[in-house]
Sequence to fold (514 residues):
Amino acid sequence: MAERERRLTPPYGGVFVARTRVMSADDMQRATKRMAHEIIERNQGLDDVVVIGLQTGGVPLAARLCQALELIDGSEVPLGCLDVAFYRDDIGLRPVLPETVTDIPCDLDGRTVVLVDDVLFTGRTIRAALDALSDYGRARAVQLAVMVDRGHRELPIRPDFVGKNLPTRRDEAVDVTSDGVDLGEMVK
Amino acid sequence: MSRPVTNPRHGRMRNLLSIADLGPDVAAGINEVMTLTDSFVEVSERTIPKVPALRGRTVVSLFFEDSTRTRLSFETAAKRLSADTMNFSVSTSSVKKGESLRDTIETIEAMGVDAIVVRHASAGVPRQVAQWATSAVINAGDGWHEHPTQALLDCYTIRQRFGDVAGKHIAIVGDIRHSRVARSNVAAFTALGADVTLVAPPTLLPPSLEGWPVKISTDIDAVLPTVDVCYLLRMQRERMTEALIPTIREYSNRFGVNEKRAELLPDHALIMHPGPMNRGVEIDAAVADHPNTVIVDQVRNGVAVRMAVLFLLLGSGTTWGGEADV
Fold:
C-alpha cells in the first residue's frame, strides 16, 4: 500500500521503472510458506489467530499466507482486510482516499492479529493500522508479517516475520506484484 | 478588504453548494461520494464509530432556518471524523442584535474554522458566504434552490437497495415548486441516468421547467404502478404566500399516498421522504411504517454521506473527480 500511495503522491509521484528483480514468484511462494511456519511456531498453533491484509498491497499476500497456514495446520484462519486511510498522519498533506471498505471478519478482543503488508518502509502505515485495529477491539497481540523490509524506519516499529530484508536507498522504490519483487526508481 | 483565495493550511478548498459542484462529470462526482460513503457506512457500524481523520479541524453549522435531521446529521458526521463542531443558532446569536451576515461570517472565520455548513431561507446565501469565506462552505439547504447532501444520501439509499440508480423510474410527488430537495434530486437522479417523473398539481410545479429532463404528470394513480421509487415531498406551507391548493385535505385525497395507493406500487418499489413528514397529508401513517418505506435508512445513510462530503472537502486533498489538489 505504502509504495502504491507514494507512487501517486508528489514529490514522489511518477512511474515505477524496475532495475533489478530481487525475488521471483517462486521465491515469494517459498518465503510465504516459511513465514506461515514461523507464525504457527510462534503462536503454538493457530488458535485465535486472525490474518489481516493492509490495503492494497498486503491483501493478496494475506490471502496467500492464509492459504499456506490452512494447508499446514488444517484449521481455518479468519482473513480480513484493513484500509488505514482515515488513520494516516499525513491527511491534508497529500491526497488520501481509501481503496476499499475495511472488512474485519470477527471481534478482535483476545485474538492474535497478524498484520500483512507488502513493503515495510517508514512504519507510518503500520502505526496507522495499529490505531485502526484498536477501534475494532483489544487484540491479545499484534504481529507484523511483510514480504520486504527495506529499512528507513521513522517510528519504533519492527516486523515479526519477514520475507526478505532488502537494503535500499531512500530514493529507490520497491514494487511487489504476484510476479515477484522489483527494485527500481520512480521516474517522473 | 482583500481576502486570500487559498487557505494556507489546506491548499485550495472546494465547496459543495449545488449538485453541479460535483465536477464537470456530475455522475462521476456522485459515484466518488458513494464509494467513499461505503467506507463510512462500515465505520458507522463499528462498536467505536469514530476515526481520527479530521482531528483538529473545526466545522461550524450556521443554521438560519429550523432543522432537526440535517443539523444533527452534520454534527454527528463531523464528530465521527473527530472534528470539533460549533453550533450557531440565529435565535441566540448577535444576528438578533442586527449583525449582518457578512460580519457574522467574518467573526466565525476569525476563530479559525475549516468548514461552514449553511442553511438559509434565501436561495444563494451559501454561494455568497463562499465568496466571503476562505473555509469550505457546504450548502445544507437554501430557500427553494438546492440541498445537495440530501440528494447524495437519496442516491446512496437507492443504490444500496437496487445496486444502481441508472434506469430506475423515480416519481417525485408533491410540493415541487418550493422544494430544494426536488431540485437537487432531479439534478442528481437524471445525472445518474434515472427516469424522473414529477407528480403534482400544476400550481405546485415550478414556474418554468425548461431544461429539466423530466416528465410531468398530475395523475398519481397512473404513475405509481410504473415506478421503482416513489419520492414524497412535504407540503411546505411556511413558504406558500398564496392559495396554491384548495385545502390540505383535498391535496391529501388526490396526491397523498395512503394504503390503497401504496398497493398500486410494484412489490419492490421504495417509498422515500426527506423528512420532516406530515403523517396524514402526503403520507399515511400506515404507509410511513411500511417495510418498503426507507425513511429511516435515508437518515442513517445521511450521516455516512456527510462524513464522505466533509472528508472529501477537508481531508482527502483531492478535488471531486479524484485528482490531487495539493
User: Anything to note?
Assistant: Chain B has two domains: 19-147+301-314, 148-298. The longest helix of chain B spans residues 295-314.
